[in-house]
Each structure stands twice: as C-alpha cells, then as structure tokens.
TrEMBL record:
<keyword id="KW-1133">Transmembrane helix</keyword>
<keyword id="KW-0472">Membrane</keyword>
<keyword id="KW-0178">Competence</keyword>
<protein>
    <submittedName>
        <fullName>Prepilin-type N-terminal cleavage/methylation domain-containing protein</fullName>
    </submittedName>
</protein>
<keyword id="KW-0812">Transmembrane</keyword>
<dbReference type="InterPro" id="IPR012902">
    <property type="entry name" value="N_methyl_site"/>
</dbReference>
<feature type="transmembrane region" description="Helical">
    <location>
        <begin position="12"/>
        <end position="33"/>
    </location>
</feature>
<dbReference type="Pfam" id="PF07963">
    <property type="entry name" value="N_methyl"/>
</dbReference>
Length: 168
C-alpha cells in the first residue's frame, strides 16, 4: 500500500494566507499615512515657528533705538494694531565743527489685514496670516502678541515678545 504525499496548498490555506496578508498590508498602510500626516503637521508648526521668530527678529532690529511709542489708528493701550516708534540716534553735524547731534527717528509699525508691516515693508510671507495679532502697552512695556496661521491648514502658532521702553 502506497500513500501519495501530494505537495501543495489547499484552497482554505490559500484563502487564510491571503486574508492575513491583507490585514498586515492594511495595518502597514495605515501606519505609513498616519506617520506622513504627523510629519506634515510637524513641518507646518516648524515653518510657523520660524516665521514668527523671523518677524520678531525684524522687530528687534526696528525697535533698537525706540524709546517711546505713539498709538495710531484709534486703538487703546490694552489692544492696538498700529503705532509709531519714536527714538533718537547720533549723527555727525557735518558742519566742520566735529560735533554731533541727536536726530529723531520715527518708525511706523502695523498689523494690517493679514500682514505685519514696518515702515511700509511687509515682513511676512503671503502664506501666513496674522489676523489675531496685536500690540499692548502697559507701564513702559510694549507687548507684541503674534498669532501665525497657515492659509491652507488653518493651524496656528502663538508667540509673544516684550520690549522695555525708556520714556513714556
């Protein structure tokens, strides 16, 4: 009596392997796209953080010699979107005397629509909106509150800075 040992898979074994493979592929697919979504969100947050840092750096440069501010556009010290920074710098008199004189500087700052503007120059990229950003003035301190929003994803990032002013 000879027994034949047939090699191969039965239909049930083949269907079981196919079902398990489908489950593994679906889990891998879900993990891949979940990770890609997290990377995109993280990248957007990093870009917004960098944009806020760049704008605050430009504010630092513009505020270097500002001693006081004048609130423009009818705002209140608690919340306003326009002001003029007033300061002084020293210049040579250019009259041959070798003397120096103080010259007044006036710099216009504003949050206009979705843009941050210093002396007529828009600082931000059009990709970013600054709709809920404002300035606050309290006790010789200027508070800058920036809320950067991505135009496409509507994700937001908040950043703030305080400047001490010399005069009221």
């Amino acid at each position: 009596m000879k027994l034949h040992n047939e090699r191969g898979l039965t239909l049930v074994e083949l269907l079981a392997v196919l079902a398990l493979s489908t489950v593994v592929i679906l889990i891998a697919y879900n993990l891949l796209f979940s990770t890609m979504g997290s990377i995109d969100r993280s990248s957007a947050q990093t870009k917004m953080r960098n944009e806020a840092a760049l704008i605050l750096y430009q504010f630092d440069e513009a505020m270097l010699n500002v001693d006081s501010i004048e609130i423009d556009g009818g705002g209140t010290p608690d919340r306003f979107t326009q002001f003029t920074g007033v300061g002084e710098h020293i210049e040579d008199k250019n009259d041959g005397s070798g003397g120096y004189e103080f010259v007044e500087d006036r710099i216009a700052f504003s949050i206009s629509g979705d843009d941050i503007v210093i002396d007529g120059n828009t600082l931000n990229d059009p990709e970013w909106r600054f709709t809920d950003s404002f300035f606050k003035y309290e006790g010789k301190k200027l508070y800058v509150q920036l809320e950067v929003a991505d135009s496409e994803s509507n994700e937001t990032y908040q950043s703030s800075k305080i400047y001490r002013l010399k005069n009221e």
